[in-house]
């Protein structure tokens, strides 16, 4: 990955987090984290992976976050001095819940 792509991913992660903190109204007890940003080869598309705690509020919370994709891109365009602003797409990051389930299964196997 090029240095410019790494810098852009880092910038997007920081700015998207800041934007969502200011503009999102999550259900009480829900927390989110931008876990990673993946850019397309042409740097024109950005997948922003969102991790939401607890799992039982993830669907409802992610629906709220998903509605802010367009506004997030507008915010990024005001903060980024590039001609081409990447299209932002939020993706619910389920890797943490899968990892937790796998660890519990392995623990159950070991205890059996």
Give the SSE layout:
Blueprint: H1 3-23, E1 31-39, E2 45-53, H2 58-66, H3 69-79, E3 87-92, H4 95-111
Parallel strand pairs: 2-3
Antiparallel strand pairs: 1-2
Structural summary, described in words:
It contains 4 helices and 3 strands, in the order αββααβα. With 112 residues, it is an alpha+beta fold. The protein has a single domain (3-111), classed as K homology (KH) domain (GMP Synthetase, Chain A, domain 3, 2-Layer Sandwich), CATH 3.30.300.20. A 3-stranded mixed sheet has the order 1-2-3, covered by helices on one side. β1 and β2 (45-53) form a beta hairpin.
Major beta sheet, strand line-up: 1-2-3
Kindly, what is the distance between the CA atoms of the first and last residues, rounded to a whole number of angstroms?
44 Å
CATH class descriptor name: Alpha Beta
Which residue ranges are poorly predicted, with pLDDT under 50 across at least 5 consecutive positions? none
The averaged pLDDT comes out at 90
CATH names the topology as: GMP Synthetase, Chain A, domain 3
**CATH level-two architecture:** 2-Layer Sandwich
The ordered string of helix (H) and strand (E) elements is: HEEHHEH
DSSP helix fraction: 40-55%
The counted number of beta strands is 3
Q: Note the overall shape.
A: flat
The CATH superfamily title: K homology (KH) domain
Strand fraction band?
15-25%
Number of domains: 1
Helix run count: 4
* Spatial extent as radius of gyration: 16 Å
In terms of structural class, how would the helical and strand content be classed? alpha+beta
The major sheet is characterized as: 3 strands, mixed
């Amino acid at each position: 990955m090029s240095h410019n792509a790494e810098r852009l991913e880092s910038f997007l992660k920081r700015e998207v987090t800041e934007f969502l903190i200011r503009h999102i109204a999550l259900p009480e007890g829900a927390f989110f984290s931008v876990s990673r940003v993946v850019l397309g080869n042409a740097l024109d598309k950005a997948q922003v992976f969102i991790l939401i705690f607890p799992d039982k509020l993830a669907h409802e919370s992610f629906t709220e976050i998903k509605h802010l994709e367009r506004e997030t891109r507008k915010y990024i365009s005001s903060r980024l001095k590039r001609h081409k602003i990447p299209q932002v797409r939020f993706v619910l990051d389920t890797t943490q819940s899968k990892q937790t389930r796998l660890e519990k299964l392995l623990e159950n196997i070991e205890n059996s």
